[in-house]
Amino acid sequence: MSGSQQPAQQLRRNLSGRHIQMIGLGGAIGTGLFLGSAGVIKAAGPAAILGYAFAGLIAFLMMRQLGEMLVDEPVSGSLSHFSGKYCGRFFGFLAGWNYAAMYLLVGMAELTALGKYVHYWFPDIPLWMSATGFFLLINILNTLNVRVFGEVEFAFSLVKVVAIVLMIGFGVYLLTTDSVPGASVNNLWAHGGFMPYGISGIVLALPFIMFAFGGLEMVGFAAGETENPRQTIPRAVNQVLFRIAVFYIGVLLVMLSLIPWNSLVDALNSGGDAYSASPFVKILSLIGSTHAADILNFVVLTAALSVYNGVVYCSTRQLHSLAQQGSAPTKLLKLNKHGIPVNAQFVTAIITVVAVGLNFLYPNGTLELLMALAVAITVINWVLTSLTHLKFKQARRAAQPQGFPAPFSPLSNYLCIASVLGILLTMAFIPAVQISVMILPVWLLGLYLAYRKIPGQRRHKDAQAQTP
After folding, report:
1. Which helix (H) or strand (E) holds 382?
2. Arithmetic mean of pLDDT, 144-148
3. In the list 29, 147, 268, 327, which could disulfide-bond 14, CB 3.0-4.6 Å?
4. What pLDDT score was predicted for residue 354?
5. Which distant-in-sequence residues (6+ apart) come within 8 Å of 138 by Cβ?
């Protein structure tokens, strides 16, 4: 890393309130809902709805805590900036590189998945070719004016939102017209009860539920490039609870009312096609929709493109923010004529190419291991969010009251910290993800050793305030 800090180059505030609203909407909807909800239903049955409600409340409280800090100081890089400023230099370093690593891992996974989605329709096209095409498309778009990113994400998010609304509307129509024999809200409790596996089923499902909400932080990364952030950010954050209630709880209430949940699980376990893991495809198939897989393939393809588009944006801004804080090479501060951190984007692109290439060459277990680590990294940053907000409140106690105070703080902070640490403990007993808990100390030690290598004059307790 360079030993001297260059003046921070300024990002441009070209994202409108419309963009932020849809980025917030799209951040709550991804493959974690369309495909990942299958594992949640298998673990908890209809009580998956309670799991999403609890996790959604925790996610909302954490977003309000982050939102209060962003309204006070709307910066790109969000958590790493605030953690460094209020908790100490190392915590900003930790949060920043945690997010950078997580987004790179997620980007690798989504590119790999995109190749498989295209392969479903066009089996003669090699997976690497599809992944390369999407990689080039999204990265080229992200080098243009940030408003282009906003418009692309607006379009992707619109497709996801419309898909969920149509699913809910179609499900309500089927329920109210007796079009499907046996369809009734009684299916939510008539087959072994609403909580067939008790509280333990919900607890075991929580790690997978919480990970599905990981995209909510995109609003924080966009703060440094948002017009009128003190007006648009509160609106976007306040909609988190509504989005989760409608898009997760609403769609699951309707879909699990259409058929018995245990019949759905049997169908999921017996399926052998690429979309056998999707509860929505199975439900539509079981009620006679022959084009369910094609419909969902388009929606999930769009969702994966949206996630990768957001990943490129967020990882680029995170590296730029780390360079501003002195925790990454100052060359990553460079902006192109459109105000885009091109060097930071180039670094993320190179790492993604290498990672995707390794995954295609060595597919057995590589992706699963890295994504398990991404889950644990996400949990650490959620804890840091609530801790940083506590320090923020202490530091700002003598100042004027903030315009967007987090509700029930500090009790909500302690609830979030306890809940997230409980989820991390639960992960240690789940075979699919326990490896992430085991290697997490190694990851944290590696980050600490990397931090210690930063020249001493750039290591100080509190990060310099960097306002765009």
Report:
1. helix 366-395
2. 82
3. 147
4. 80
5. 305, 308, 309, 312
Contacts 24+ apart (CB under 8 A), 95-99: 95/381, 95/384, 95/388, 96/318, 96/321, 96/322, 96/325, 96/327, 96/328, 97/322, 97/327, 97/447, 97/450, 98/377, 98/380, 98/381, 98/384, 98/447, 99/217, 99/314, 99/315, 99/318, 99/381
Q: Is the predicted pLDDT of residue 26 greater than 90, yes or no? A: no
**Residue 391 corresponds to which tokens in the numbers above?**
């320090």
- Structure-token match 């072994």, residue found: 192
- Domains and their CATH numbers in the chain: 17-394+405-454 (1.20.1740.10)
pLDDT reported for residue 6: 38
- Is the separation of the CB atoms in 23 and 153 below 8 Å? yes
* Nearest-angstrom CA–CA distance, 340 and 6: 17
In this model, does residue 152 exceed pLDDT 70? yes
pLDDT tens by residue, 398-409: 665 567 899 999
Give yes or no for a contact between 196 and 117, defined as CB atoms under 8 angstroms apart: no
